[in-house]
Amino acid sequence: MRFNTLFKIRNTIAVLAIALMAFGTPLAAQDTTAVISKGVSGPVKGVAADNDLDAFAKGLANISKDATTNDATTATIDVAVVANHDAVYKSAGFYAILFILVCIFIAITGKIIRVYEITQEVQGKKAGLNWNNIQGIILVLFLILGLYGTYWSYNTWGWVVTKDSASVHGARIDTMMIVTVAITTIVFVLTQFLLFWFSYKYRGQENRKAYYYPHNNAIERLWTIVPAFVLTALVVFGFFTWRSITNPSQDDRNNALSLEVTGEQFKWNVRYSGEDNQLGLKNYKLTTPTNGLGIDFTDKKSWDDRLGPEIVLPVNKSVRVTINSKDVLHSFYMPDFKVQMNAVPGMATYFQFTPRFTTEEMREKSGNAKYDYVLLCAKICGSGHYNMQYKVRVVSDKEYKEWIVKQPLFFNDDMKKEMQLKSASVSKETLRNNKLAIN
Fold first, then answer.
1. Residue 41 and residue 98: Cα distance in Å, rounded?
2. What is the pLDDT of residues 227-271, one digit of tens each?
3. Beta-carbon neighbour count of residue 220 at 10 Å?
4. DSSP per residue over 300-361, as a string?
5. Closest by alpha carbon to 84, among 47, 46, 55, 53?
6. 333 beta partners
7. Nearest-CA neighbor of 314 among 253, 392, 371?
8. What is the torsion angle, in degrees rounded to the nearest 10, for the CA atoms of residue 159, residue 163, residue 167 and residue 172?
């Protein structure tokens, strides 16, 4: 006895389809909301089917005022039955039923075609359908649809690559990316066209025999050497681009604006260097509730360091960021500037870049008056990872100088009092030790 006869597969599928339909019916019934109200007097309160204000607004009609009452407004509202099937279309049962119905349709169509072919054979006629031709045509259709899908994806999402980067080095990365995409797109289109067209052109035919063609050295050399040269050129291009980004000269490092960003769960701390453009030393052992970053204030270079409530950068000015972490691994990520570097506990990392568009200029380019640059964390650093967003503004050099002088110093009165208390404590301890030594 055959397997499908034993288990009655078709009957099982039919029962399953009926069960899913029965399951889906209550969903449709629950999601269809009817609100019918007539002769409602007084102010009209908001009533909507499934909180859908648009559907409710469309159902309102025949609102009239009754002038016979004393300054009282009466309204008659006829609300049509409003059905909302959105939840049904989002349910798994709906798509399961749809999939089964499509499968049943395909199975029935296949049976009809098979019956037709058997009938032709019984009558001694040649089979009416040439499946080789049908499959060849389907492959050509797949080629056309696939190439259109490629065009659609480039047309819809191409702005991700082609939009202007907000940093100088980002423009170089964009150029490298566009060159790579252009080369790979040309190769993709050619290979897909040849693949599908050859499948159609050389489809099986009764009057044609396949030609045995096992090997060709010239073709082997062609598709080995050409890709090797192209890939080597792309790798070298990428290497020098990356080197120019990550290895600035010593003069560029010295002339760049220096600031420090320290990540912790779940926020960023920003410290700007003062007029000397040098950040003071840090030591995690000096961390206190007052001195959260562990800044060593015995180093005079830290006395003019300033606290940044946001990241503000001058346009067309090189910026060197020192990146740290207080607890776990974070990642300093500013997508508009093509900047990303891990923040590693116990080890400082660096990234240097030059902003080339102010925030206002980028808003004009994007057509979004509320557009802002943002600093994110690109590492899943804990439950509050999503909170690590920090506003970034790029302004003119004049605006930056006016802004930075208004920011508070890290070495404030609280820090000074803490240092004085520590100094007094150290002095008492030293005096006590000296007395013990004399005794």
1. 46
2. 999 999 999 999 999 998 888 888 888 889 999 999 988 889 899
3. 10
4. GGGTT-EEESSEEEETT--EEEEEEESSS-EEEEEGGGTEEEEEBBTB-EEEEE-B-S-HHH
5. 55
6. 340, 376
7. 392
8. 80
Q: Which residues pair with 260 in a beta bridge?
A: 271, 322
Q: What is the pLDDT of residue 360?
A: 92
Asked if residue 44 lies in contact with residue 57, where contact means CB atoms within 8 angstroms, the answer is: no
Helices 168-201 and 217-246, interaxial angle, to 10°? Answer: 160
Q: Which residues pair with 74 in a beta bridge?
A: 41
Given a contact cutoff of 8 angstroms between Cβ atoms, the answer to whether 386 and 378 are in contact is: no
In this structure, the number of other CB atoms found within 10 A of the CB of residue 375 comes to 23
What is the pTM for the complete model shown? 0.62
Phi-psi region for residue 13, left (φ > 0), alpha (ψ -120 to 50) or beta?
A: alpha
3-class secondary structure, 74? strand
**Farthest-apart Cα atoms in the chain, separation:** 127
**Paired tokens of 314:** 């001058």
Preceding amide of 188 cis, omega within 30: no
C-alpha separations of 329 from 347, 349, 385, 404 in Å:
11, 12, 11, 29
pLDDT single digits (tens) 107-143: 888 788 778 778 777 777 765 667 788 888 889 999 9
Strands (E), 161-256: none
Render 157-171 in DSSP notation, one character per residue: HTHHHHSPPSBHHHH
Instruction: Determine the residue type at 402.
Output: E
Q: Which residue has the tokens 């090189």?
A: 318
365 DSSP 8-state letter:
H
Cα distance between residue 243 and residue 233, in whole Å = 15
Q: Which two tokens stand for residue 290?
A: 């007052």
Model pLDDT for residues 414-439, shown as the tens digit of each residue: 777 776 666 655 455 555 555 555 55
Residue positions counted in the chain: 439
